[in-house]
Amino acid sequence: SAGVELSVNNHAADFTLSTGLSPAISLSCLVHNSSQAEELLWYRGAGQVDLKDGNKVNISNICISPVNESDNGVTFTCRLARDKGVQVSVTLDVQFPPQLSGEETLQVEEEKDVTLTCNSKSNPQGQSTWLKDNQSLTLQQSHHKLYQTSEVFQLSISKVQKSDNGTYTCLVESRLGNGTRDFHLIVEDKKPVFPKEAVIAAVVVVTITILFGIVARKDKFLKVW
């Protein structure tokens, strides 16, 4: 295979192909500098692509259809069958506007902690922020906490109060568009707490009282018997 080269979409070296969400894109692999028929192989990541018999020799084409978010960052590689060291790879850079998801309605008892989780996917990564009732949320250091990764944007609220009731909006802005997701937070009344020790003590007192009553009236019970 000395001197044999490959090209993918006219690129003789590894490259990145930027694209948006589209119905389909085609990749064409071509053999150069060979005096014989050369079989080609295609791989998606580590998995081999199944090619038809008429699409393997000297030139081979594959189609990605449709192109979606899951294709972002995926590498397609064309290799020479008899020498897999001869290859060209293309990595897809699929760009798309923010897509958000997350639990829409959360109910929490007063004085409890709650976390609103906004799952966000976008390429390029967007700028994230939180709104409350369509207004910018004023963060309180001891009350609110933010956590963010490339795909998760969280707002944690410590010891929620009735004033925390409302609609929180996760807003992600990118140059390809904006995405929003509403989270309805319902703060419920704090449930009364019955101390376990007091309940046990009450049961013991009632039990002892009943026993004493039985002992005090045992003569009457025996007479009836």
TrEMBL record:
It is found in: Membrane. One of its GO terms (biological process) is cell-cell adhesion. Its main location: membrane. The keyword Transferase does not apply. The chain crosses the membrane at residues 198-216. Residues 25-89, 98-188 form the Ig-like domain. InterPro entries: Cell_adhesion_signaling, Ig-like_dom, Ig-like_dom_sf, Ig-like_fold, Ig_sub, Ig_sub2, Immunoglobulin_dom. Keywords: Disulfide bond, Glycoprotein, Immunoglobulin domain, Membrane, Transmembrane, Transmembrane helix. It comes from the Eukaryota. GO terms for cellular component: cell-cell junction; plasma membrane. It is a single-pass type I membrane protein. PROSITE patterns: IG_LIKE. One of its GO terms (molecular function) is cell adhesion molecule binding. This is TMIG1 protein. The lineage of its organism: Eukaryota, Metazoa, Chordata, Craniata, Vertebrata. The gene is Tmigd1.
